[in-house]
Write a sequence for this structure.
């Protein structure tokens, strides 16, 4: 980094930030499967959307695949935190694979809701981003009667069979504010639409977005640690910009561009739900090179104490290995 004429005076750290319970659980599952079986093991899609985590697992002998047909018969396959479609599950069974499911329990909840609604004759509208693995997995819980929308304009184009028997679900990592706009459009057009008893957007996504909203009132620029493939990390950048701060997504400290820092006195730092805390600390170290006297202030935020346990058989083997 080049020297600034006016180096940053303060770095604010958002709370909460970084790993959520679903990511913690998914990483723990892969590590325990490796400990139990040794390499290679196969994982459907990236276990979580973070380049550093994925590369570390590759070095341990994890092979990331998209199609179960790429996995040798009777080998070991782990489903990523994003979940998979019923077609993927059937293909894995056909190849006699040993399966470990690291799907986030909050995603599993949405899958169960889709199946229940379809069994009761509801047509389903899913709010989410086309092509995202979580969305593909959720859409794949039903063979028909499910529609994907991404914005309020899509609501106008929807064609359903029975307006009195429709319901909606959402991707768990969306922007809370943008999703609220889409839901308002849906309920305005379809007043009898079935509303989920509990919001599908996960607690971690909401908490991190709320923390960025609060931080943006104080910071000129916000750096979000996360990979470009991470939906929730991208949403954090969007939230910051909507609140008037400049915002940049960085996989690691090496991605920082010196011109971003020119004339910036207050910097906010947060991390998406799949980004490890070490990357945040590396970022702070890099920022201190440009501004050695910068003050570090940790902001107050919601304390998260949610833990998702591993499958029982894996948890037992983890305890036995200690």
């Amino acid at each position: 980094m080049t020297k600034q004429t006016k180096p940053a005076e303060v770095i604010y750290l958002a709370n909460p930030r970084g790993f959520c319970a679903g990511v913690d659980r998914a990483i723990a599952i892969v590590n325990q499967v490796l400990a139990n079986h040794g390499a290679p093991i196969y994982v459907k899609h990236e276990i979580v959307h973070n380049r550093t985590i994925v590369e570390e697992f590759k070095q341990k002998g994890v092979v990331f695949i998209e199609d179960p047909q790429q996995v040798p018969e009777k080998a070991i396959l782990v489903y990523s935190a994003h979940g998979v479609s019923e077609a993927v599950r059937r293909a894995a069974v056909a190849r006699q694979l040993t399966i470990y499911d690291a799907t986030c329990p909050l995603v599993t909840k949405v899958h169960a809701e889709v199946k229940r609604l379809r069994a009761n004759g509801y047509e389903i509208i899913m709010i989410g981003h086309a092509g995202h693995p979580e969305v593909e997995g959720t859409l794949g819980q039903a063979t028909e009667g499910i529609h994907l929308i991404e914005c309020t304009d899509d609501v106008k184009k929807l064609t359903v069979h029975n307006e009195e028997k429709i319901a909606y679900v959402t991707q768990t990592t969306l922007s809370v504010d943008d999703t609220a706009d889409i839901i308002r459009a849906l309920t305005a057009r379809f007043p009898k639409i079935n509303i989920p008893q509990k919001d599908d957007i996960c607690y971690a996504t909401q908490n991190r977005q709320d923390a960025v909203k609060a931080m943006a009132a104080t910071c000129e620029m916000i750096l979000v640690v996360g990979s470009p493939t991470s939906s929730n990390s991208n949403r954090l950048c969007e939230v910051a910009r909507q609140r008037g701060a400049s915002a940049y997504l960085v996989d690691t400290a090496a991605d920082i561009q010196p011109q971003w820092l020119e004339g910036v006195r207050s910097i906010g730092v947060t991390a998406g739900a799949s980004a490890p805390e070490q990357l945040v600390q590396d970022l702070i170290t890099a920022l201190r090179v440009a501004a050695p006297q910068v003050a570090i202030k940790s902001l107050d935020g919601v304390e998260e104490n949610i833990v998702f346990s591993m499958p029982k058989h894996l948890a037992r083997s983890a305890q036995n290995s200690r």
